[in-house]
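for the writeup, i need someone to sanity check this before i put it in the appendix. the sequnce is what the collaborator sent (i think, or maybe the updated version? ugh). structure was predicted straight from it, no edits. if anything looks off just tell me and ill rerun, i have time this weekend
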Amino acid sequence: MNAPVSHPPEIAASLEGATPFMAQYLTAKAGQPDAILFFRMGDFYELFFKDAEVAAAALGITLTKRGKHQGEDIPMAGVPVHAMEGYLARLIRIGHKVAICEQLEDPAEAKKRGGKAVVHRGVVRVVTPGTLTEDSLLDARGANRLAAVAVRKGRAAVAVVELSSGAVDSVACSIEDLGAALAAFRPSEVLVTDRMYSDETTRDALDGSGGVVQALAGAIAEPQAARARIERLYGVSALDGFGAFEEAEVSALGLIAAYLETTQAGKVPALAPPRRLGESGFLAIDPATRASLEIDRTQRGEREGSLLACIDRSVTSGGARALAERIARPLRDPLAINEQLDAVEWLLERRDLRRDLRDALKASSDIARAVGRLALGRGGPRDLAAVRTGLSIAEGVAGLFVGQVDPLTGQPRRIASALDRLTLSPDVSRLKADLIDGLVDEPSHLARDGGYVRPDYRPELDAARTLRDDSRRVVADLEARAVAESGVPFKIKHNAVLGYFLETSAKAAEGLLRAGPDSPFIHRQTLANQVRFTTVELSELDAKISQAGHRALAIEGETFEGWRRTVQALALPLQDVAEALAELDAHAALSEWAEEVGAVRPLVDDTTCFEVTAGRHP
């Protein structure tokens, strides 16, 4: 059963009589008519009109009023910015789309334009069930996929993307097998054309997917337009390098590309090249049979009690997702099946290596999802720390396998392939070294909080921090030098008018006043008993101290952005490392389970013989 789909709220579309603020809101809302609009106002996201009524009912928050529009009261509700993710999760869980409209400038800048100027705002993201990236909104051990379905020339296709990790897959199939192909991915959200949405021949497949169904304009799925969008998404001039896709696959991938353009507000996610999955390579399991077998969820929708829960011994979130994918989409090709069994058996026979591998992986991080957030500009310093940790673990894991190669048989192909991907390129190695040198061990969650760049990494940052945190000592040092250079008993003081200044008695200042313009001590003010001076260095110090805090945060922000851009540029090799660690974890998990229960490797060939001796269900 699909979750309820958001319907366009009934708001007053006319701007006539609207205040500048409300005109700004209505303009933003007009661009997102089918989403609930979170409109940033200081420390709150405010909701108005029908959005406020829907959110108040769904979230149990207070519904109030704010002014009038065209003679009618304006319903209003709000959620605190710091608690937004919890409210967002509840709305997404029941099938709503949420558009985030942020303040795009400092309110102080708006005030410079006049007392009634409105802070610039804009929609920076549309959050939907299939486009989540935040850890707090995701199941760490389960994939969160956005799927798209298209039918062209009697053939169907399913394209899926996991935005949080960057994986993109497509599979073409017969219309009859569409339900099985779609259900295997367990999508959170399914995109279709408006025509297909009302087509009875595909209705059962869509209903059986379990995801929220979103209908898009049919023109988006036209092959030529779809191809252009995919090429734009990947920054390529042709799709030939990705493989030979059927027309239906291009249409489905085009729906995803169009949806990402809209929901990510122009930000380009870090996506792997689309991987074409042959329909003959996997066992087709229709939705009813899948539910009955309780492969990854029981019939109550719970993980506990499913086949996956019984055999999952993975120690990383990426490994758990990789194992879940294997179980959900069983292989049919005997060669591919035996390659996986080779890897499991090889690790089963090497208990010490498997123990060391699993111990190392327990300390790993979710590189794939950290990279996904950083590429979209949603990540923070902790995501950089996750990348650093994951890369360090990858090198350590690769080292465990040194000397573990049998000279006669070698390593299983799946193991060798994973280890090859753990070999860091020079660029990735430099990133790891840079993060080790520059990022503190336990960084803050948000970049704007600062404090995540190590001392001695950037001299100009150290200087700004010294001024910010130790300004008294800096001022005292300057005061001592001024006394030593002049022989005058100066005291450095501060007020709101002059800032920092050198003060001494009128008698002690007589010599400096006679020195003239060549003196480094510049006269600022004469009082009844004191005379005040400054120097070029003190004036510069005054400005630096007042700006030091802002300067320190700006330098850290600049450093973070440099690291973030590097991660974005290296997204594909970083995703390769993440995928390799996940595969090794999945292999080792199955080996661990096999040892626990005494499982025996099956003999798999291309015959139709099925023989089981003393078998039992897991």
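The chain has a mean pLDDT of 88. The CA atoms of residues 33 and 261 lie 17 Å apart.
thx in advance!!
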